[in-house]
Amino acid sequence: MTTEKPTIRWGIVATGLISSWFVQDLVLSRSDAKANHIVQAVGSSSLEKGKAFVATHIPGTAPTVYGTYEQVYADPDVDVVYIGTPHAFHKENCLDAIRHGKNILCEKAFTLNVAEAREVFEAAEKKGVFVMEAMWTRFFPLVKTLQKLLHTDKVIGDVHRVFCDFGLKIDIASLPAESRYKDLSLGAGSLLDIGIYSLTWGLVGLGQAEKPKVVASQHLIHGVDVASSMVISFSGGQQGILTSSTNARTARNFCRIEGTKGIVVVEGDAASVPGFFTVYLDGSEEGKKYDFEKPGRGFYWEADAVALDINVGRKQNEDTMPWVETIRVLEILDEVRRQGGARFPQEE
Ligand SMILES: NC(=O)c1ccc[n+]([C@@H]2O[C@H](COP(=O)([O-])OP(=O)(O)OC[C@H]3O[C@@H](n4cnc5c(N)ncnc54)[C@H](OP(=O)(O)O)[C@@H]3O)[C@@H](O)[C@H]2O)c1
């Protein structure tokens, strides 16, 4: 058996904020890296923008820079395409990449709705390529440790309730009409942008495999949800109370998980980037804190997982972010919007 790390060559599609964070983490030097990551190509709406992206965010590297996304898909030296466009383009970008036989890591929300996601997975299956939603938080060692403590070791007994909030203060009215936070045709709204993380904590924290019942409410301004609240409930009585808002920033203790023997409080910059958690057992004032090292931002854990999967020929990430989980998440988000009223023009 070889112990050599696989090498994977990335083609980056779009040069916005999230792509800049992702590539910076790819090139980070880490002693625990499970793969060698190479930024092989960058595709942007303009060649100049692409070149500036490389010079600013990954100086010292020399990817091929293209003025179209299509050229990234067609580049034979690209092993996997990373898609960092607004959610409204994910379906089209994925289908184009699949047509060229490319493997894909696509940002969250994976698509605008579950019907689009099914279309992408069907095409991927036919073509035999790897596809994964970039729900990076699930790959954090913190989340893996927490899942083991909650659901294998049962440190707080049976988990019955999870609260999670992801709020950011964004002055949407002051943003230009074409902002992805304002333009409904780009998928604007707190739910798909940040509510998806609150939902993720509910699903991970409760640890139930079935599809939950959903009761939801949204506050819309010009059709854009500035607040979304959902209660998901499972047949065993477990409940998740999961919220998002662009009206106010959440406090650092963004998530509380309750069990029959105690609670866990998860804290950090935001629900997307947990920093540590504390286990408080009933009857004890003192909690046990679990802290985790995180050089850079933490996008490399999902990138390593993609590299390992592709290296052994898997078509999806079975352990952490399988297709059925992306589908379950989007089914719930669709139901929240059905009850709450947020719709995208593509759905009219
Ligand atoms: N995982 C995370 O923590 C995280 C954080 C933030 C965002 N995201 C996700 O990543 C995606 C992009 O978010 P972002 O914050 O990076 O957005 P952004 O800064 O606005 O960048 C999006 C990029 O997409 C490309 N694009 C293509 N058509 C566009 C259009 N009509 N309008 C705007 N951009 C267009 C542009 O790149 P080119 O001009 O180079 O083609 C643009 O720079 C979203 O799906 C979001 O949910 C994830």
From TrEMBL:
Residues 8-133 form the Gfo/Idh/MocA-like oxidoreductase N-terminal domain. Its EC number is 1.1.1.179. InterPro entries: Gfo/Idh/MocA-like_OxRdtase_N, Gfo/Idh/MocA_domain, GFO_IDH_MocA-like_dom, NAD(P)-bd_dom_sf. Keywords: Oxidoreductase. The keyword Oxidoreductase applies. The keyword Cell inner membrane does not apply. Pfam families: GFO_IDH_MocA (PF01408), GFO_IDH_MocA_C3 (PF22725). It comes from the Eukaryota. It is an enzyme of class 1 (oxidoreductase). One of its GO terms (molecular function) is D-xylose 1-dehydrogenase (NADP+) activity. Residues 152-264 form the GFO/IDH/MocA-like oxidoreductase domain. SUPFAM superfamilies: Glyceraldehyde-3-phosphate dehydrogenase-like, C-terminal domain, NAD(P)-binding Rossmann-fold domains. Transmembrane segments: none annotated. Belongs to the Gfo/Idh/MocA family. This is D-xylose 1-dehydrogenase (NADP(+), D-xylono-1,5-lactone-forming).
